[in-house]
């Protein structure tokens, strides 16, 4: 298969990531059907498209004609059969649960045309853990978008051993055609590229804090004003959630048994107090509830 053969895209899951990936594909000229098991989520996603496109036109990012075309290109549907039945390329962006993803891929294998590539947007599950739920393992690949998917340019494409050259090439080409900047990982690795790099920075930042070398704000400032990062690791952690970091570090520790992987004492302290970051009004920084 070549990029030119892709006309219809199916996105499974219309949550945070799915509806934005679907809309980006629709803006880029693809016929998109996005499915979800939640009627409420489908309704919200559809309403989001109606509110988002006029703003793009006002800002001069899209012409009125392009926005109108994008609107007609995208459909939100409840049935996976309807969404994937004529798909040339599927992007799964459903809840991050391995058993659920395996079930969805087994269904997709039955429903989607034989030539269709089945990609997962999972942020942590490598596609080799899912591919054997299908009869087309060479066409099952990681295609990892970043949040918010309409804005963030990076896409990580992971070519596990089971993935064919053609699948990796077409996934890279489609990412570019969706106005993204894809990077190719030549093998599977936990956390892919960017999250590994961020995890290393965040771990080091927390140890520097723990060792009393510098305070939160100064460590963040070093990253912002010295390395040009848009925000420091603590500010970023307040955005992504200290609860998530705690859970991920505990999971890593359970996997490796290495005490160095345990969450740092200051992180544990915040976690135990329910101080998860911006969403609770308190994390590494304090946020006014207003
Ligand atoms: N949120 C992020 O920052 C981010 C970034 C990159 C990748 N991801 C990955 O994207 C995927 C989705 O994450 P999200 O943040 O959009 O989650 P989300 O909870 O916002 O959305 C997931 C959606 O999947 C739907 N769903 C569950 N089972 C389904 C099924 N059988 N068929 C169709 N839809 C189903 C849910 O109803 C929900 O609307 C996950 O694999 C996650 O790891 C998330």
Automatic annotation (TrEMBL):
GO MF terms held by the record: NAD+ binding; oxidoreductase activity, acting on the CH-OH group of donors, NAD or NADP as acceptor
Domain (3-hydroxyacyl-CoA dehydrogenase C-terminal): residue spans on this chain: 191-287
Keywords (A to Z) from UniProt: Oxidoreductase
Cited Pfam families: 3HCDH, 3HCDH_N
GO biological process assignments: fatty acid metabolic process
Stretches assigned to the 3-hydroxyacyl-CoA dehydrogenase NAD binding domain: 9-187
Xref: Gene3D superfamilies: N-(1-d-carboxylethyl)-l-norvaline Dehydrogenase, domain 2 (1.10.1040.10), NAD(P)-binding Rossmann-like Domain (3.40.50.720)
InterPro entries: 3-OHacyl-CoA_DH (IPR022694), 3-OHacyl-CoA_DH_CS (IPR006180), 3-OHacyl-CoA_DH_NAD-bd (IPR006176), 3HC_DH_C (IPR006108), 6-PGluconate_DH-like_C_sf (IPR008927), 6PGD_dom2 (IPR013328), NAD(P)-bd_dom_sf (IPR036291)
Family affiliation: Belongs to the 3-hydroxyacyl-CoA dehydrogenase family.
Name assigned to this protein: 3-hydroxyacyl-CoA dehydrogenase NAD binding domain-containing protein
Native source organism of the sequence: marine sediment metagenome
Biological classification of the source: unclassified sequences, metagenomes, ecological metagenomes
């Amino acid at each position: 298969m070549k990029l030119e053969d892709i006309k219809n895209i199916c996105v499974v899951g219309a949550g945070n990531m799915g509806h934005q990936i679907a809309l980006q594909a629709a803006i880029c000229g693809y016929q998109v059907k996005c499915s979800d098991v939640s009627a409420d989520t489908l309704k919200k996603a559809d309403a989001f498209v109606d509110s988002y496109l006029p703003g793009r036109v006002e800002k001069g990012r899209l012409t009125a004609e392009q926005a109108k075309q994008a609107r007609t290109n995208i459909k939100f549907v409840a049935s996976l059969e309807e969404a994937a039945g004529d798909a040339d390329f599927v992007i799964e962006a459903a809840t991050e649960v391995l058993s659920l993803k395996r079930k969805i891929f087994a269904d997709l294998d039955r429903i989607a045309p034989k030539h269709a590539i089945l990609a997962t947007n999972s942020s942590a599950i490598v596609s080799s853990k899912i591919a054997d739920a299908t009869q087309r393992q060479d066409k099952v690949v990681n295609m990892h978008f970043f949040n918010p998917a309409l804005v963030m340019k990076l896409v990580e494409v992971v070519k596990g051993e089971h993935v064919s050259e053609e699948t990796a090439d077409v996934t890279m080409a489609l990412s570019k055609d969706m106005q993204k900047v894809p990077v190719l990982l030549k093998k599977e690795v936990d956390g892919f590229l960017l999250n590994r790099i961020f995890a290393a920075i965040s771990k080091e930042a927390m140890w520097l804090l723990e060792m009393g070398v510098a305070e939160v704000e100064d460590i963040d400032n070093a990253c912002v004003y010295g390395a040009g990062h848009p925000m420091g690791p603590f500010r970023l952690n307040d955005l992504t959630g200290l609860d998530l970091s705690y859970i991920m570090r505990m999971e890593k520790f359970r996997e490796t048994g290495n005490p160095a992987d345990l969450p740092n004492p200051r992180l544990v302290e915040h976690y135990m107090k329910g101080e998860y970051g911006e969403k609770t009004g308190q994390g590494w920084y304090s946020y006014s509830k207003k």
